[in-house]
Amino acid sequence: MQDISPFLKRLRPLDALLPISLVLQLDKAQNSLSLGLILIWVALCFLDPVIKNRSKHDSRHSGTVYALCLGLLLFQARTIVTGSDETGISQYLMVALGVAVGFSLGLNAWRRLLQWINLATLAISITLLSHFRIEHDWLQDINRQLFNEGYGNINRLGVVLCLLTITSWASARLSRHRLFQALGASGAALGYLTCLATESRMAAITPLIAVFASWVILHGSPLLKSKSKAKLPLMVAAVLIPLGTIWTFVILPDIDVGFSGDNTRMRLIRCWAGSLFSGQSSLLYGTGHNRSKIMELCSDANIGNIWAGVPGASGHAHNTYAQLMALHGLFGIVAILILVLVISRGMIEQCRTSIAGETTETVHGWTNFSWGEACLGFNLTVLIGSLATTIHIYNHTNQLLIGLLLSASLAPSLTTRNTRPSLPPESL
Q: What is the reported pTM?
């Protein structure tokens, strides 16, 4: 029994609830079960610090904070599981719960959680790609007809795939065991292929830009100072691959129609953000969770969306910040700034810790990977996605993933690198 206990502690089998729920969420018929499993997992994550701090002198009262979070989760559990508060306070609560769970995890727990999530990436990607057909919008048809849009329409599915792909990338780089490195790399590759299959421009560029940008920011300077012959090809590839992807998947498809799609999107964003000054909402606190007034103001006819199949109004701003400004006014802007400040400070500290560990004498310093680079990749994924679409709406599972990725910057500094011999290999 003593031999099994350390094994289970490293394995963290309860975390398997999260990938199981992520896979189940793909099918609309399993949404309630999926959300129920997620809430059970979150509750168990909160119980751990509550129980541990019960008999200890807890000067920060962290156990009390997690007990309060658990209470809020239980109060809102029914509306979350049934989806009856899809556009209400539950969407922000799920993001907050994700942040709280991530903040409660230690470094080894984070590494193991990423490995568990990677299994969901593999399962979802393989399931979707197994239905591949050589025709336009094949994945959109499969998502609608076979799975009844469990994660939402193809754009919502694309958002989730972006988040899963970037976690698989981090799992591959942070894992010490070759098996988990291979599984993580496979998950990242298959996840990105599925992102491309969605034919969503946001999904095509977001993970790729996040990976390359985080690498360049943290390793560009050491690489330029090194004497490695590979530095020039690597730097050229780091610039050309993202630019080529943007040209192929973002610019080229919209050239033939005169960028009408992007023009319509920009008009919609301006309309939602400008609704604060329309006289139909409060500048201080917006319209609240009621979008009807904004949708009337920003209808297809008013913004000139001539491409709408059935003229009506978009239910969201196609930009997270414009959406939050329109619905919650100046209070919403302040809330965004507070979250950005907290996450940015944590991310900067993680990156500083990573850079401090680099030396100009390390020839292969650019092959190292730190927790700071993972945090940067996570936050860039959320940032790009939130600029390109309203990333947090219509799916509670997606909201929890967003919170988890943001909370990574608040974890204790992890400066471990795969190339450091001082790290013992994992037994798992």
A: 0.87
